[in-house]
Design goal:
Elements (H helix, E strand, L loop, with lengths): L6 E5 L4 H12 L3 E6 L2 H14 L6 E6 L5 H14 L7 E4 L14 H29 L2 E6 L12 H20 L5 E8 L14 H7 L19 H12 L9 E4 L6
Parallel strand pairs: 1-2, 1-4, 2-3, 4-5, 5-6, 6-7
The chain binds NADPH dihydro-nicotinamide-adenine-dinucleotide phosphate and the ligand N[C@@H](C=O)C(=O)O.
Ligand LPIYNW4C binds next to loops.
């Protein structure tokens, strides 16, 4: 097992990519605290981990967490430290995010607000809570799941692309600021990942039609296998970052389906 004994906070773990990352971390023996708003779905993830990996030395505990609230993120971090008797954690992985296809002319302003709150403020809350104790402990990795939208321009996703760029820029500048402290910052930029709930709450059918996607169904329904990657591919990217030699920082990984243009 590659991560035996590592204490890891994982937010946005109740479905999709986060649920897949939770399983990968548990499989590799980490002590994981998983967070999201839907506690019942987190409990399903815990059960899945136990059922699928009965011989793992890992531990996994669910905590209700809303990343838009700094108190809620602090509670998740404190729970990890209490549960696993430490003053900081080895890593925090932030998978929490929302994505709404919206045409700017349709002004879905509530969805824009939520995108900024969850994707941007969620990232600053995770960093604000984790960085001071990590610097004190002289170690720690902060991994944010951004998107290929963090480096590519997708029409009908302007606010989403901007939110992912925010996290990319925040990460790169913070990474440079913390050089020498032992704390490192990383992003993973996935292309289309299948089997996630990301599209379920979309409502702008004009924008979705323009992108050629169906809303209200899990991402990837109707797509061929080679057109999409899956949550386990992202879990493996996270594990690669967490297990690099001490003198190496894998700062970012852009990971897309092989045949994506
Ligand atoms: N699927 C894809 O193709 C791609 C996804 N991504 C990114 O990956 C991340 C995960 O998305 P994906 O797995 O696809 O989608 P899902 O909708 O399946 O997962 C989103 C996760 O974010 C959590 N979340 C949303 N709002 C909050 C909040 N306020 N507080 C805490 N957790 C929250 C959800 O939990 P809950 O609702 O229980 O709070 C859920 O666990 C996102 O950042 C997304 O932008 C990037 C590139 C491609
Ligand atoms: N693949 C990206 C944009 O469409 C994403 O889902 O983040």
């Amino acid at each position: 097992m590659l991560l035996t004994g590592q204490v890891i906070c994982l937010v946005g773990a109740s479905s999709g990519i986060g649920a897949g990352v939770a399983e990968g971390l548990y499989r590799e023996g980490a002590k994981v605290i998983i967070g999201a708003r839907r506690l019942n779905k987190l409990e399903d993830v815990v059960k899945l981990c136990n059922d699928n990996h009965p011989n793992s030395q890992g531990q996994i505990h669910p905590v209700e967490c809303d990343v838009t609230s700094r108190e809620s993120v602090q509670k998740l971090f404190d729970t990890a430290c209490e549960q696993y008797s430490c003053s900081s954690v080895d890593a925090i992985v932030n998978c929490a995010g929302v994505m709404y296809f919206t045409k700017m002319k349709n002004a879905q302003m509530d969805q824009w607000d939520q995108t900024v709150d969850v994707n941007c403020k969620g990232a600053t809350n995770c960093m604000g809570v984790a960085i001071p104790p990590m610097v004190e402990a002289k170690k720690g990795k902060i991994i944010s799941i951004t998107s290929d939208a963090g480096v590519r321009d997708f029409p009908n996703l302007a606010v989403y692309c901007a939110s992912k760029r925010f996290v990319e820029t925040l990460t790169e500048i913070t990474r440079r600021e913390l050089v020498g402290t032992g704390v490192t910052l990383h992003t993973i930029l996935p292309g289309d990942v299948k089997g996630t709930d990301l599209l379920l709450r979309n409502t702008d059918t004009e924008a979705a039609d323009a992108m050629g996607v169906s809303i209200g169904v899990p991402v990837g329904e109707g797509f061929a296998r080679e057109q999409l990657i899956d949550p386990n591919d992202i879990a493996n990217a996270v594990i690669t970052m967490l297990t690099s030699p001490p003198h190496v920082a894998i700062n970012s990984i852009l990971i897309e389906p092989r045949d994506q243009e």
